[in-house]
Amino acid sequence: MLTLRKIERAFEFGREKNYVLRGVNLDIEEGEFVTIMGPSGAGKSTLLHILGLHDNAWVGEYYFFDQAAHKLKPKDRAELRNKNIGFVFQSYHLLDQLTVQENLEVPLSYRNYGRAEREQLVRETLDRFQLTDKKHLYPSKLSGGLQQLIGVARAMIARPKLILADEPTGNLHSAQAKEIMEMFCKLNEQGTTIIQVTHSEINAGYSRRIVNIHDGNVVGEDH
Question: Quick check: 12 pLDDT over 80?
Answer without folding.
Answer: yes
